[in-house]
Amino acid sequence: MPYLFTLLRATLFTIGQLPVVANNRSIIYPHTQTSFYSSLNFVIIMVLLTVVIVVPFLFTVRHNVRCEVCKREPIWGLRYKCTRCPHYNLCQDCFWTGVTTDQHTNAHDVKEYSSSSVSLVLFVFC
Fold first, then answer.
1. In angstroms, rounded to a whole number, what is the distance separating the alpha carbons of residues 79 and 62?
2. 73 and 53 share one domain
3. How many folded domains does the chain comprise?
4. At a CB cut-off of 8 Å and minimum separation 6, what does 45 contact?
């Protein structure tokens, strides 16, 4: 995790220090950037900060169900529940590697759960 913050800090520093070439002739340095480039940098920074804050949280969520493939119980991280097969849950490792059992195929739609009580509205179509 400390490496991730170091990488983020270096990326943000680089974004702020890069000169911008305008009209193929002039160079605009960060302290004289137009509001467009400042807004663009702000959006990039906000996206990076969101990823840094949300992604580590997703891997610490505990679901009190068992993975049908690897039999891991409880499932930590993201949980994938089949919309066709009743009570069919996959852990993120089995889902990302495409491993299934006989009753379920990768053609089935699954719903991704990022918390043990509230579901994300993300549908994954394999």
1. 9
2. no
3. 2
4. 12, 15
* Block residue for tokens 């069919």: 88
The Cα 5–Cα 11 span in angstroms is 10
Closest to 76 in 3D by CA, of 89, 90, 86, 62: 62
What whole-number distance in Å separates Cα of residue 72 and Cα of residue 109?
22
Domain limit, last residue, from 25, 42, 58: 58
CB distance 82 to 94 below 8 Å: no
Residue 75 sits in the same domain as residue 107: yes
> Do residues 68 and 85 both lie within one domain?
yes
Q: Which domain holds residue 36?
A: 2-58
| Helix boundaries (H) for 59-106 | 92-97
pLDDT digits (tens, 9 = 90+) for 32-91: 555 555 667 777 887 777 777 766 666 678 888 999 999 988 988 888 999 998 889 999
Shared domain for 12 and 45, answered yes or no, is yes
Contacts of 91 by beta carbon, 8 Å cutoff, 6+ apart: 67, 69, 70, 72, 75, 76, 77, 78, 79, 80
